[in-house]
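Internal ticket #5521
Category: modeling
Description: The requester needs a full-assembly model to guide mutagenesis choices. All entity lines are attached below as received. Residue total reported by intake: 228.
Assigned to: D.W.
Attached entities:
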Amino acid sequence: AQKVTQAQTEISVVEKEDVTLDCVYETRDTTYYLFWYKQPPSGELVFLIRRNSFDEQNEISGRYSWNFQKSTSSFNFTITASQVVDSAVYFCALSEAGNQGGKLIFGQGTELSVKP
Amino acid sequence: KAGVTQTPRYLIKTRGQQVTLSCSPISGHRSVSWYQQTPGQGLQFLFEYFSETQRNKGNFPGRFSGRQFSNSRSEMNVSTLELGDSALYLCASSPPQGEKLFFGSGTQLSVL
């Protein structure tokens, strides 16, 4: 069965601190996709990254970076020098290749609060 | 390009009633998916439509149904509402390559 676990329910940091959001997944498929989405108070989920199971290269985009490790089934997300605007709920999600894109299995989300 | 549009934004219903939610995908997107978000269960997949056909379905009772029209707009219907149906219902569309989902702002349904 597929499952995504985000053990951190809430994280609070002070602006400019680095913060890492953890994501652990379970799947029997060898081909799958991992995602991170951000949900600000407006409710709309904003896409951050998609990674396929064959690409274990870490990725950096500005202050955001992602560490994908198949050996530990983890796909962690780090925000460097956090800002107040980063406050939101962050979701990690899994999609198996056979699902043709529309079905994501989401973790419970991590609520990040960045204080000035 | 306009994003995914969901109407209405807020809805209040009473138990036993039925409700219809609407979703207009991004132009050119043929896949529309629906999700239910609650504090207890988190984000759960309801169903996906592609070219007017249901392509995938989550584990929800038959009271939850949907459809897609030829212009890719989609509706979701919940009959015989229960208190536990109170949730944020999110719609998402994806492009032909299906690389990612684009979400709307959701419809907040309250069942009293």
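Resolution: model delivered.
Comment from assignee: Chain B touches chain A at residues 3, 31-33, 42-45, 48, 50, 55-56, 58, 88, 90, 92, 94, 98-106, 108 (CB under 8 Å).
Ticket closed.
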